[in-house]
Amino acid sequence: MNNRRTFIFGTAAALLLPAPAFARPGFRRLFNRRCLDGWTTVGDANWRVERGAIIADRGGISFLVSRESFRDFELRVEFRVSPEANSGIFIRCQDRAAISVANSYEINIFDTRPDPTYATGAIVNVAPVSPAVRAGDRWNLMTIRARGDRFDVAMNGRTTVAGARDATHREGPIALQYGAGIVRFRKVGLRPL
User: Fold this and answer.
1) For residues 125, 127, 131 and 133, what is the CA-based torsion angle, rounded to 10 degrees?
2) Rounded to the nearest 5 degrees, what angle is found at the Cα of 147, between the Cα atoms of 37 and 31?
């Protein structure tokens, strides 16, 4: 009887807890933690999968580009970078072969950016980061919501961009950037909005 009661109460408590970010209904993984299926490489960084994470630590500016395109979505990405790393998550990319801030939106991961206005958590040239956040040497969760011309960004549950508006790019693939340092992406999940 006591074991049965423990099971029932434990099950009820588990049902009341929020589901992990990547297990919620409607989210699907874009990275399977084993290989780079579903992604193409642009540039010469040494992208690879190690211990369930995408990693790059050498080469020039490079991107992993999703084969699929997306319009309105919530994207959740777990990442870890060295303190001097230059990286980012590009969304709604217009040119798969030549990704830039001119033809997509870059949500920056760059703690030591010379102009901190668009450092980690900002949308470069669209929405400055407020408040400033640091990503170096720990796992972080970045949440990006893109719906129509509105964008929201949060890092580790803390809002860095709220209600930014820009209608330049409507749809396109997602790209993970390597620029410098050590860059790791562990989980990449998306749900359409």
Assistant:
1) -50
2) 15
pLDDT in tens, 71-112: 999 999 999 999 999 999 999 999 999 999 999 999 999 999
d(CA 133, CA 122): 10
C-beta pairs of 38-41 under 8 Å, 24+ apart in sequence: 38/66, 38/67, 38/68, 39/64, 39/65, 39/66, 39/67, 40/64, 40/65, 40/67, 40/96, 41/65
CA distance 193 to 174: 16
Q: What is the CA radius of gyration of the chain?
A: 18
Could you tell me if 172 and 72 are in contact, meaning their C-beta atoms sit under 8 angstroms apart? Answer: no
Does this model's pTM top 0.90?
no
Helix (H) or strand (E) holding 8: helix 2-16
CA dihedral 21, 181, 110, 78 (to 10 degrees): 0
- In whole angstroms, what is the distance from residue 46 CA to residue 64 CA? 11
CB proximity list for 45: less than 8 A, separation 6 or greater? 56, 58, 59, 60, 61, 62, 178
Question: Which domains are delineated in the chain?
Answer: 23-192 (2.60.120.560)
